[in-house]
Amino acid sequence: MMCTVSGWGDGGSNDSCNGEQISELHAITATTSHTETGSLYDGFGTDDDNDYYYFTPGTDGTLTITGYTSTYNTDLYISTLSCNNNQVLNNGTSYSSPTAISITSSTTVYIRIKRERNNATTNYSLPITFTAAAQTPPIIGDIPNQAATVGSSLSLSIASYVTPTNGDAITSYSLTGTLPTGLNFNSATGILSGTPMAVTASTTLSVVATDNDGDSNSDSFTITVSAAPADSTGGRDFSLRKNLKLRGDVVVIGNTVLCEKNISGACIEPTGTYNNYTNLQMATSSYSTLVLPANAVVRYARLYWQGRLTATSSSTAWSSTQKTNSKTISLRQGSSGAFTSISADFGDFAETISNNYVKIYSAGADVTEFVKNSGAGTYYIDNFYTETGETDDKNPSDGLGAYGAWVLAVIYEDSDSTAQLKDVTIFDGYKVVADLDNDDIADPNEIVEISVTGFYAPKAPALVNSKVYAFSGEGDANIVGDKYWMRGGSQVNYTELGTFNSRIDVSGSRSPNLTNNSGIDIHTYNVGTAGGGLGLIGNEERTAWMKFTTTSDTFMPSVAIFSTDLYAPDICYDYAFSQNNRFFPHDGSPIAHIHGYLLNNEPLSAQIMFRNRESGSEAKNLTLFIDEMDSTNQLEFYTDTQLELKKTLPESYYYVDVTAGDILMNTMSDLKFNWIT
């Protein structure tokens, strides 16, 4: 684009700093050439001895003067700092830029033309070319294929796979392909989320990120939606439900829904020796408080619950009504408002014998969207399906005792970049551990062993900081034989973690707030090698074995959650400058600069050194992006003002009386000093 503006004698409209905007160059985003013309005059009381111009480009680029001329001698200033800075022509009539001046987007360019002859009209012509920098769209990396399950939430942030360029923000995302039913794509945030509603074969999707420079490359990935696990009968092996690696953690809350009440209807500690001798009733309310960091973003949340039905004198099949009722619960955040009915996406149904036949169950539901929308606070449970009362006194009676409880596991990501990286893995199943012959001995056929695989522990020499959370039903406080054991996959011997004794280890307030929670256990154990842990989960461990034993009771473990510290590469760097393989001394300043003597005609070299400070991680396949330096605004070259001119080596000189900022650099390709000879 080429345009020329004529008009001699500007009449003083641009006679002061920030005078006239060059509209042809202002806010431009493409390469543009423009010639500004005008006149200056001084004499007989009429002064027009300075003309000032400015413009602000809308993109990065370089500025060149392609042949400035004037009829008499003038001074010319071009600067991004002020209108009286950086004189490029002194008392002359022509000037062309020896090098292009780098200009960053939204940086104002100031131009001043000053006449040097009195009592005469000076006409000038100022040709300017702004060359827009090559614009690079963002880059999308390889997005992994996604596996989802019907009824379980999915959240994928495309932004985490995008590398911005030129400092430009991503303005939008686009997706092509057919999303499985229940999933949505947010084109502003690049988040694909939702809860799949139907089994879907592998579907290919493609995404593109866009910034001011245009569209990125396209990356494709697949989403496959599998059927939700079928309800189980008679118990279920533990399997991996969810694994996330993120800067954040998991918070586990929960509570019992039953308690013994006093005459006023308030919950009290149980007075009966065992659960089956205690008149347990529904608590007025059952709640537990979820506390999250201020920067937390909920990534996954799952609700689990356990209960039982009234005993029968003979074994009978589960009816569809009983299963539906067992798999339905109500959830609310806050002390008021309506409850939301939650339907389980799986149910584990079993039967145990304790004097008579007792149907027992475990269920769970993905509540990610509910918790994500509700946030931290107090969560209440209602509409809980379980037996109440003193079961030993009923007809038919049973020795199991009434119980009912729930657990809410919330995995969150902390936007604070200093938050600890974690591997959080949720396993669930349903096992019935029972003393079948009532001999107060844990016989081999009464021992339940399970293995879980899929969590991650860091490499040596890092210590392993790992916790396990366990949820189990019907562990009586006064029966000491309900034991929980664990060993790492590489270990031979089990270590006893503790006893299922109606204990709840959760942070935050809860109600009922009891010590003896009448057959419900929510426990936490430190199983790593750090911080006084039991040393069961060691470096690079992926598997753990758990053993459950009892000498005189029945209990049902259903959830195990591992939270283990991981260590991402922590890259630090240092730099050094050299000339002719001679390194300059470093004076400890964190600002990159040269401290020492310089040779006149030899190039400078910069070396950057990287180190991974995190011993528990290995950094591989690193990519280093180096943006071109804007020497006008990012580099400053100066020397001390008190030095004397002295020749130290051939073609090597000190500066003399040069103040900071007086030496102008133009581009990275032409970094040179105005040497004193």
Major sheet characteristics: 11 strands, mixed
Residues in β-strands, percent = over 45%
**Fraction in helix:** under 10%
Question: How many β-strands, per DSSP?
Answer: 49
Radius of gyration: 37 Å
Task: Give the integer mean of the pLDDT values.
Answer: 83
Query: What's the structural domain tally?
Result: 3
Q: What sort of overall outline do the alpha carbons produce when their principal axes are compared?
A: elongated
N-end to C-end Cα span: 42 Å
- Contiguous low-pLDDT stretches (5 residues minimum) are 1-10, 631-677
Tally of helical runs: 3
SSE-based structural type: mainly beta
In words, what does this structure look like?
The chain is mainly β and 677 residues long. The chain folds into three domains: 2-132, Jelly Rolls; 139-226, Immunoglobulins (Immunoglobulin-like, Sandwich), CATH 2.60.40; 247-565, no CATH class. The strands form ten sheets. Strands 1, 2, 3, 4, 5, 6, 7, 8, 9, 10 and 11 form an eleven-stranded mixed sheet that branches. Strands 22, 23, 28, 31, 32, 34, 35, 36, 38, 42 and 44 form an eleven-stranded mixed sheet that branches. A hairpin with a 6-residue loop joins strand 39 (483-488) and strand 40. It is elongated, with a radius of gyration of 37 Å. The chain starts with a strand and ends in a 24-residue tail after the last strand. Residues 1-10 and 631-677 have low confidence and may be disordered.
